[in-house]
Design a protein that fits this description.
Blueprint (H helix, E strand, L loop, with lengths): L1 H6 L3 H23 L2 H20 L8 H20 L19 H19 L2 H12 L4 H8 L3 H20 L5
Length: 175
């Protein structure tokens, strides 16, 4: 079992953990932060904390992925507090900034910006649930484990988040 090998400090197991979970943690952080550099920093800090925890005889005892997502989420929360950028919206780096833009591309950028801004208006726990469920494709049970909530609570958070997003996105800006 991977967790047992990790606790024995098997270097191959540690590399396997990184190779397996780093891409998912990156996607999770990127969806929250919208910045490739910040997402990479979250990944590095998550695995650094993982190694420190192992060194001190702590760390995950049962669910490795839940432990890693929880650490990443706490780091993201700390990032927002530290940087005070909760209302900043960055455009996806896949959208070329110097290329000539068609009207459709401009509308797509605007819509991406609107959705990200709406997402950031949600409470942190609702953001986490939506990101894990739809961004990472995790089951209700997996999200419950990561957030340390019941499945019923995760369903309620998901429902409230979707309704809040619908309401925010349906609002027309007054100008």
């Amino acid at each position: 079992m991977l967790l047992e090998r990790i606790q024995r400090r098997d270097e191959t197991a540690l590399a396997e953990v990184y190779d397996t979970y780093a891409p998912a943690i990156y996607r999770y952080a990127y969806r929250h932060l919208g910045s490739p550099d910040s997402a990479q920093e979250i990944v590095a800090d998550t695995f650094h904390r993982f190694l420190i925890a192992l060194k001190h005889g702590a760390g995950p005892e049962q669910e490795l992925s839940a432990w890693l997502y929880r650490v990443a989420h706490n780091l993201i929360t700390d990032f927002y507090r530290r940087e005070s950028i909760r209302n900043t919206v960055e455009i996806d780096e896949n959208m070329p900034s110097r290329a000539p833009q068609t009207e459709a591309a401009a509308l797509q950028r605007e819509e991406i910006s609107r959705v990200r801004a709406a997402f950031r208006k949600l409470p942190s726990l609702q953001q986490q649930v939506i990101n894990l469920r739809f961004g990472e494709g995790l089951s209700l049970e997996q999200v419950a484990q990561i957030t340390e909530k019941t499945v019923g609570a995760v369903k309620a958070l998901q429902h409230r988040a979707i309704e809040a997003l619908r309401k925010i996105l349906d609002e027309r800006p007054t100008s």
